[in-house]
Amino acid sequence: MLEDLLLILFAAAAVAGAVLMLLLRHPMRVALALIATMISLGGIYGLLGVHVIAVFQIMIYVGAVMVFMVYAIMLLDVRDPSFTERYSRLLWPGVAACTVLAGVLVGAAWQGKIPLFKGPGDSFGVQPFSAAFLNDYWLYFELTSVLLVVAVLAAVAVVQLRSTRRG
Amino acid sequence: MDKTQFLLWVSLVLFSIGLVGLIVRRNLLVMLMCMELMLNGVNLSLVTFAQRGGSVEGAVMVFLIFIVAASEIAIAIPIVLLLVRHRLTLDAGAYTDLKG
Questions:
Q1: pTM of the predicted model, to two decimals?
Q2: Are B65 and A108 within 8 A, CB to CB?
Q3: Distance between CA A55 and CA A53 in Å, rounded?
Q4: In 3-state terms, what secondary structure has residue B34?
Q5: Is B53's Cβ below 8 Å from some Cβ in A?
Q6: Can you list the alpha helix ranges (DSSP code H) found in chain A?
Q7: B2 neighbourhood in chain A, CB within 8 Å
Q8: What values do phi and psi take at B2, rounded to 5?
Q9: What are the domain boundaries of chain A?
Q10: Domain tally, chain B
Q11: In B, which residues are within 8 Å of A121 by CB distance?
Q12: How many CB atoms lie within 10 A of CB A67?
């Protein structure tokens, strides 16, 4: 009972943070709203019993990605038209198209076209997750390290492009 | 309401709000953050399905999405920095000449 209540609370906090992301003006406040959404999602993952993903959500998303984003926002405090006017010309077409998309998705969910397979619903801890990673998915695990190295090299290449153009 | 269904609704709402934000907001950094919100919505649905089915595959997929999101932001922010150095604005409307 308490678990359901907490789940609803975390879900409401996540959706409220997402709505605030649409409404707030300053990028830093948008980033804080997104961080609130991510922490609430971490709470939902913890309540579902998927503690591995909850820890990764907080550590990787909030701890790495959003800190990097906040750092970039502090670096780029540009007061330009995007600061005074929040929305682009595409406001009403965008809202209309997304309403249609959400309608289609809601219709599909309402008619039960989204498959909800009935499983045992066991939650899994660190051990099965790690075993699956190192036995079945070791190639993908190694490929992620290659991807991260390529991303770092690409970031360095972008920075060098900037410095050569300036000099 | 079923818990799985409820969480799927939440992930649908998060994804839709992220898509609306990506289209309607003007600030490049805010658009990037809305993309992150869409990824979070997808992650929530994957975790919900994985937990419902009692299988690890969904969680493995979510972990790979975390890695992709981290490398995406590591490349996207230097690109945004480069654009801002070039034209001194974060307004996406100022870069319409990047269209093909």
A1: 0.87
A2: no
A3: 5
A4: helix
A5: yes
A6: 2-23, 27-48, 51-56, 66-75, 81-84, 91-110, 126-135, 138-166
A7: 116
A8: -65, 145
A9: 1-85, 126-167
A10: 1
A11: 51-52, 54
A12: 13
Terminal alpha carbon distance of chain B = 47
Q: Do B59 and A117 touch (CB under 8 A)?
A: no
Report how far residue B44's alpha carbon sits from residue B39's, in angstroms, rounded to the nearest whole number.
9
Instruction: Among A26, A116, A130, A152, pick the best mutation site for testing chain B contact (most B Cβ within 10 A).
Output: A116
CATH class belonging to A1-85:
mainly alpha
Q: In this complex, do B91 and A81 lie within 8 Å of one another by their Cβ atoms? A: yes
Average pLDDT by stretches of 10, chain A with 167 residues: 89 94 90 95 90 90 91 82 74 85 79 57 71 86 91 88 64
Amino acid at B12: L
Contact B90, B27 (CB under 8 A): yes
Distance from C-alpha of B20 to C-alpha of A107, rounded to nearest angstrom:
19
CB contact under 8 A, A88 and B93: yes
The interface predicted TM-score of the complex, written ipTM, equals 0.92
Structural domain containing residue B47: 3-98
* Cβ-based contacts of A49 with chain B (< 8 Å): 51
* Residue B72: CATH number of its domain: 1.10.287.3510
A76 to chain B: which residues are within 8 Å by CB?
A: 29, 80-81, 84, 90
